[in-house]
Amino acid sequence: IKKDNKDILFVVIGDGPEKHNLESMLLKYDLAEDFLIFTNIKKMAYEYLKAFDIFVLPSQKEGFPYALLEAGLAKLPLITTNVGGISDLANYQNSIMIMSREPEQIKKAIYFILENKERGNNISEVLHKDVIEKFTLKEMTEKTKKVYED
């Protein structure tokens, strides 16, 4: 994504082992500081999600990230990879699935959602519905109990 596109701002919530690499890439590619912002928020980060337009989770490996539930509750269009436990929630109706380690696909998916607001809204509504219906406390408790019983 071009650094001169003033309409796009990336926000990384939290910090982790990749923060230093991302900061290095900002310098290497001469990207403006207002293009990517790091927040060190860790507790209750979900409260900020409604301020965003898209949620991107480009994992290379993953269990079942709670952040997907938070993105669904915030009614955000989801762009994610199909790795690990992500597919327990994400599918081709409620998200845009991309290949892991393919940054060009992230770019295309972001532009697709920005240019196709209706499709983005549909994705976010289906994701929200899936989270509300399939990931209730009752459902999760029953599924967890079944794992232990089996």
What does this structure look like?
- With 150 residues, the chain is an alpha/beta fold.
- The chain is 41% helix and 12% strand.
- The strands form 2 sheets. Strands 3-4-5 form a 3-stranded parallel sheet, sandwiched between helices.
- The chain starts with 9 loop residues before the first strand and ends with a helix.
TL;DR of this structure?
With 150 residues, the protein is an alpha/beta fold.
- What is the structural class? alpha/beta
Helical content stands at 40-55%
Weakly predicted, low-confidence segments:
none
Question: Into which percentage range does the β-strand content fall?
Answer: 5-15%
How many strands, which pairing sense, and closed or not: the largest β-sheet? 3 strands, parallel
Q: Write the element-wise H/E pattern from the N-terminal end onward.
A: EHEEHEEHHH
How many helices in DSSP terms?
5
Strand order of the largest sheet: 3-4-5
Please tell me the overall pLDDT. 88
Strand runs, count = 5
Distance between the termini: 48 Å
- Coarse shape: globular
Radius of gyration, rounded? 16 Å
